[in-house]
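job 3f2a | input accepted
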Amino acid sequence: MNSSDFYVALVATILPVAGFILLRFSRLRNTVFFQETYGVVLASFGAVIKNLTTSELALISLMAGLGEEFFFRGALIGPLGAILSSAAFALFHAVSFSYFVLALIMGFYLAGVYQWTGNLLAPVIVHALYDFTVFLIIRSHLKRMPKTGIDLIA
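job 3f2a | predicted structure (154 res):
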C-alpha cells in the first residue's frame, strides 16, 4: 500500500464516522430509523461490547475489517460487481431493515474506496476504523446507562 492510498483511507473514514456521530448525537437519534438500528445493535451486542477492553475492541474491529473486506470486496466484487457484492454485504448485516439499508450504503461506499484506490487495504482500514470508533462510542454510552436498562437509546 502506498502512502497516498493510506491517506485516502484515513480521510475516507471521516464520512461514515461523522454520519454515525450525527445520527447518534443529533435530533436524528429520535427518528424511528435510528431508534430501530441503534436498539438492535444494543440488544444484540451491547452486553458484550460493554465489557470488552479497548484492545479487544480494536482486535475485533481489525478482524471484521480484514475478513469482511477480503470476502465482500476481494472475492465477490470481481465476479459480482460492486452492486451485488454490496447487496451481499448488506444481507450479511441485515439484523433489521434499517441496518440493512445502512449496511448497503456502507457497502457501496467501501466498494467505491476499493475501486478508487485499487487497493484492498484501503477499505479494510476504513471498515476497521469505523467499527472501532462506533464500538468505543457504544461502549461509552452503555457504561453511562442506568443499571435498570431503561432508556436504552437516549
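job 3f2a | Residues 150-154 have pLDDT under 50 and may be disordered.
job 3f2a | closed
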